[in-house]
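pinging the channel bc i need a second pair of eyes. not urgent but kinda urgent?? the chain im working w is below, pasted from the shared doc
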Amino acid sequence: MTSPIQLFAFGTGWGVPFQTSAPFPLKLATWLRMARVPFEIVEANDAGKGPKGKSPWIEWEGTRMGDSSLIIEHVASKLDIDLDAHLDARQRALGTTIQRMLEEHYHQCFEHQLFFGEGAQDRVKEFQTMVPFPINLLLPTVIRRSFAKQLHARGMGRHKEAVIVDQGKADLDALAELLGDQSYMLGDSPSALDACVFGFLGVSVYVKGDNPLFRHAASHDNLMRYCERMRGRYFPETLESLPLMFKSANRAAEGAA
């Protein structure tokens, strides 16, 4: 049996029931559970320590590497894993398109609302508690300046907040339409794409508070059932902390799994 992978990731927060509340680490953790690859999460709230200066990264059998997609490719190749073996060419193409929408566009809307939208001040304060003194004193200013610079450089930060929220909602609406009444994003069986989709939805729908983008994600019944289906199948230990507002969705998800 392969030795456990050490997955270095941001810790959890703002109501998210998983060990990490960041989309790319949750994506990677989900894929590893789907692939039944042993791993352990190491909380690392300073992404600058990673090989690419971003979260997550792994250390495994003498290899230290970053970027969730490259990590998945590396582990899949080493262990001869293919979660997409049942997909045809069109499904694979659709999967790539959905992944790019989430990782290159929705991600920007998500980050903006997380650190600048409704409830952002409380979330930044919560993140402060995860970082050691005296760095935590500088965190609010540093983190906002860093994300503001990144979002402006990529274009999203040049828009008004209402535009950013509307564009994020449009991504979620498209995702809900593409999912329809399927159990998983590309049909009745899970694929690698579901790790990515759940990575982003899982850190959106459970965020506490009245943020308009995150509440919009949870307002889609099929996306909520999907999240609970994935959660029940791959993160069953988190169901004990299931909020009351999601109880009915979880029962429906269990029946459809």
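so Strands lie at 5-9, 39-43, 57-60, 63-66. and The two ends are 29 Å apart (CA to CA). — does that match what u expected or am i reading it wrong
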